[in-house]
């Protein structure tokens, strides 16, 4: 198999701002039957490229997407530098990040994510180990025992003309500190993107490596759909990808990473 052409990687972000969960009052999760955020259907994990890219349509209901977009617009977003450091991919967007293990735990436990990844019941009682584990991809694919989500929460806003050039996402080692659980050595293996808005342009495009059977594979394009979550493998197994230029509207993305034991 041909070697990968060297491309910029996303490096671990600098120390996040000192905001804490007590200072950031996230819009409430979870949806309940009496809530306007109630899911019309149970989100499920859908393979786009086996062992590389998975989609979860309707991960956030439409009403919740609007609530989060409005809330995130009130945060102090910072525009990325026009001239990136040497070795970094060119990225032009507005972003905010915070270390919040509590919110990461809510995204894992109170949404469909835990059930989709592990097949286990989440805090809402949804899930079945045998029958609802269509998304229960084995540990080899996830890179180990899934523990939850990275507490490093990132918010991205791409306005018209903004983009993220071709790059690979790095894997990071960390100590996993879920609320109420003992600290565990861990690492990140998959990127989680939750699209909150749609826009013209702004697709996340992946570029598969050529093989003997397919020497010129076609790119895999994912258009932003409000409420859809995308999981893609990163680290040594990451596929080259980019965020296309937004042509009209705004693309809002909520980002974390899947964390596994090491």
UniProtKB/TrEMBL annotation:
Q: By its UniProt entry, which Pfam families does this protein fall under? A: 2OG-FeII_Oxy_3 (PF13640)
Its GO CC terms are: endoplasmic reticulum
In terms of superkingdom, the source organism counts as Eukaryota
The record's annotation in InterPro entries points to: Oxoglu/Fe-dep_dioxygenase_dom, P4HA-like, Pro_4_hyd_alph, Pro_4_hyd_alph_FE2OG_OXY
Annotated region Disordered: the residues are 1-38
MF annotations from Gene Ontology: iron ion binding; L-ascorbic acid binding; procollagen-proline 4-dioxygenase activity
Q: What is this protein called?
A: Fe2OG dioxygenase domain-containing protein
User: What keyword terms does UniProt attach to this protein?
Assistant: Dioxygenase, Iron, Metal-binding, Oxidoreductase
Supply the PANTHER family for this chain: PROLYL 4-HYDROXYLASE ALPHA SUBUNIT, PROLYL 4-HYDROXYLASE ALPHA SUBUNIT DOMAIN-CONTAINING PROTEIN
The cofactors required by this protein are: L-ascorbate
Q: Which residues form the Fe2OG dioxygenase domain?
A: 148-262
Please report the organism this UniProt entry assigns to the protein.
Answer: Aspergillus homomorphus (strain CBS 101889)
Extract the Gene3D superfamilies matched here: q2cbj1_9rhob like domain (2.60.120.620)
């Amino acid at each position: 198999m041909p070697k990968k052409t060297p491309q910029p990687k996303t490096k671990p972000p600098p120390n996040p701002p000192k905001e804490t969960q007590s200072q950031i009052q996230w819009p409430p999760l979870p949806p309940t039957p009496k809530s306007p955020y109630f899911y019309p259907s149970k989100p499920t994990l859908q393979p786009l490229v086996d062992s590389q890219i998975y989609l979860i349509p309707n991960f956030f209901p439409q009403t919740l997407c609007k609530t989060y977009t409005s809330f995130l617009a009130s945060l102090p977003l910072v525009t990325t530098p026009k001239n990136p450091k040497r070795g970094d991919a060119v990225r032009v967007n507005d972003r905010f990040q915070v270390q919040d293990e509590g919110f990461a735990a809510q995204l894992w436990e109170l949404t469909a994510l835990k059930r989709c990844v592990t097949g286990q019941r989440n805090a809402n009682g949804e899930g079945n180990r045998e029958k609802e584990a269509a998304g229960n991809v084995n540990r080899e694919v996830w890179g180990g025992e899934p523990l939850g989500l990275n507490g490093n929460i990132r918010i991205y806003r791409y306005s018209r003309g903004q983009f993220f050039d071709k790059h690979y996402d790095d894997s990071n080692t960390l100590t996993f500190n879920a609320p109420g659980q003992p600290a565990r050595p861990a690492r990140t293996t998959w990127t989680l993107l939750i699209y909150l808005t749609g826009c013209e342009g702004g697709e996340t495009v992946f570029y598969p490596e050529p093989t003997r059977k397919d020497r010129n594979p076609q790119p895999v394009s994912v258009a932003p759909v409000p409420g859809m979550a995308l999981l893609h493998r990163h680290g040594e197994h990451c596929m080259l990808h980019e965020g296309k230029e937004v042509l009209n509207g705004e693309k809002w993305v909520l980002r974390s990473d899947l964390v596994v034991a090491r």
